[in-house]
């Protein structure tokens, strides 16, 4: 165990030195007056012994949780996320501005402690979390169910407690709880089929969230869920803001298609031309999520490539003697034909999300 801690410590030292040597600091655009990303890596160098002392069990659990701290820049900027302006504004208000402009977040304006992003799969919830990790000068914990669930009795709730203690220790911190419904569904009695360990984990999460609400620690919980109606009501109360990350609007869909299939692009030395009616395609893709549209664009771009595979396979010379092949132009009809075989993944859930938003909306 101590070897693993030493290895991680040396890695972070090398990371900091590399940034200094190259004259580069990750996330340098996020805050001008609140320190650079180097401060973030320096925070991670703080010894765990100062937090857990000689308690070897908690130090081992801390090493497990530390594996889910982002050490590298996901390289997703706010401007990389098409649309979702309300969600971006709210996330910035909760994570960026309290650190950048602390004097405006005191008293009744104290920073939010929890925010829920919900909506159909593939609409940008995880992208928003990656933008937080990229743009914000905070220690970012990327937590899923596997991070805090253990087969050993009593260890799961200890992992939850250690997670929040580490977040306070390395503050300012952001805890991203992905697929929250997988760990914080409605609580039921043991006779209702829920295991005792599951109830204990949920209880510990609620206790820790309450602890954040009563403290001035710069620790923020960002949660994401595809099924918000499955979430326990006590957790919803602690997530003060609830933002629907819905399907993209028509203007956003048009920007997406023109971004992924521009009139002329060249990657890997292969040129691709398109002749698309972007306005028509934006209307036709109603009900498609961002990931659905990206998939359609990929398949449309692959159509002219598939037509030349036989020629490429019959070529007997080496790759350096490959004949000069010009791909066919991708037309609007190609895009529509791909759409006919690529159905939207979440259209049937739209009404359910809208109904849930009406009952649980939080401005």
UniProtKB/TrEMBL annotation:
It comes from the Eukaryota. InterPro entries: AAA+_ATPase, AAA_lid_3, ATPase_AAA_core, MT-severing_AAA_ATPase, P-loop_NTPase. It is found in: Cytoplasm, Cytoskeleton, Spindle pole. Residues 1-23 form the signal peptide. SMART domains: AAA. GO terms for cellular component: microtubule; spindle pole. Pfam families: AAA, AAA_lid_3. Keywords: ATP-binding, Cytoplasm, Cytoskeleton, Isomerase, Microtubule, Nucleotide-binding, Signal. SUPFAM superfamilies: P-loop containing nucleoside triphosphate hydrolases. One of its GO terms (molecular function) is ATP binding. Residues 111-249 form the AAA+ ATPase domain. This is Katanin catalytic subunit A1 like 2. It comes from Myripristis murdjan.
């Amino acid at each position: 165990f101590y070897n693993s801690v030493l290895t991680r410590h040396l890695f972070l030292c090398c990371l900091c030195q590399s940034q200094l040597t190259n004259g580069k600091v990750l996330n340098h655009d996020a805050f001008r007056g609140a320190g650079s990303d180097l401060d973030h890596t320096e925070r991670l160098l703080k010894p765990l012994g100062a937090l857990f002392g000689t308690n070897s069990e908690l130090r081992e659990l801390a090493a497990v949780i530390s594996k889910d701290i982002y050490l590298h820049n996901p390289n997703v900027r706010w401007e990389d996320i098409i649309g979702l302006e309300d969600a971006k504004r709210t996330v910035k208000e909760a994570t960026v501005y309290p650190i950048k402009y602390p004097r405006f977040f005191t008293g009744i304006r104290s920073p939010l402690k929890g925010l829920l992003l919900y909506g159909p799969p593939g609409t940008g919830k995880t992208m928003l979390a990656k933008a937080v990790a990229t743009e914000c000068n905070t220690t970012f914990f990327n937590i899923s169910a596997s991070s805090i669930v253990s087969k050993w009795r009593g260890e799961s709730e200890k992992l939850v407690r250690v997670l929040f203690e580490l977040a306070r220790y390395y503050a300012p911190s952001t805890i991203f709880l992905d697929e929250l419904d997988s760990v914080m569904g409605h609580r039921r009695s043991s006779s209702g089929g829920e295991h005792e360990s599951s109830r204990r984990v949920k209880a510990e999460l609620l206790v820790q969230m309450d602890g954040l609400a009563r403290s001035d620690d710069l620790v923020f919980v960002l949660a994401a869920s595809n099924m918000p109606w499955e979430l326990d009501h006590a957790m919803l109360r602690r997530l003060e803001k609830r933002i629907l990350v819905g399907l993209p609007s028509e203007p956003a869909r048009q920007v997406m298609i023109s971004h992924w299939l521009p009139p002329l692009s060249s990657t890997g030395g292969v040129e691709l031309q398109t002749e698309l009616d972007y306005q028509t395609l934006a209307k036709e893709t109603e009900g498609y999520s961002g990931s659905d549209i990206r998939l359609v664009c990929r398949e449309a771009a692959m159509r002219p490539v598939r037509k030349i595979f036989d020629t490429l396979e019959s070529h007997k010379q080496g790759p350096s003697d490959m004949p000069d092949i010009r791909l066919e132009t991708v037309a609007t009809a190609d895009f529509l034909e791909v759409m006919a075989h690529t159905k939207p993944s979440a259209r049937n859930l739209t009404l359910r999300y809208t109904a849930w938003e009406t009952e649980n909306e939080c401005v």
